Amino acid sequence: MGADVPDLERGEPPVVRLESETPAKAPMHKYMILIAALITVAACNMAPVTVPQSPTYMSIMAGADEVPTGVLTPGSGTVEFYIKGQMLTYTVAVSQLSSNATAASLSVGGAQVNGGVLFPFLPLTQARDGQIASGSIDLSQPVHVMNGQTINGDSLLALFANGNAYANVQTAQHPAGEIRGQVMKVQ
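Above: the chain sequence. Below: its structure as tokens.
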């Protein structure tokens, strides 16, 4: 801090100024604030705002939903399906499985029906918690299902829409499935 020398004979009190408030530096300080404000406004106008897309279909998996009898497990999971054009992408996430996931798949069948595997969710990360698989399916092409068969994309989406598809995650402790959930349309 510096102080101006007052004219004490005329009764002037001392004036104290901060370095940044000196008359020579004040205009530069104002220009810097103005420039920073303009840059901020320009950056906000140039940055595209993207709204996260919600999943189109989802499977919420739990041990109680395993068929024919539920599995007692703290494990849970979700599969989120997104549709953009003719591409169906999926992400499989699990939490608190009894052991690492050994397989994860999409199968055909209603809520109380064990059906055949349509396709495995690959590549699979063997883990107890977190994302274990993600991928995409081109719905404009035949969807290759287990046993060398195919279905078309419309048929796969019809299974989803009618509640006739489910996701299942298997572990070493529960090789037939530890958690399961029907695929449902998200509202």
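Residues 57-185 form a domain with the Immunoglobulin-like fold (CATH 2.60.40).
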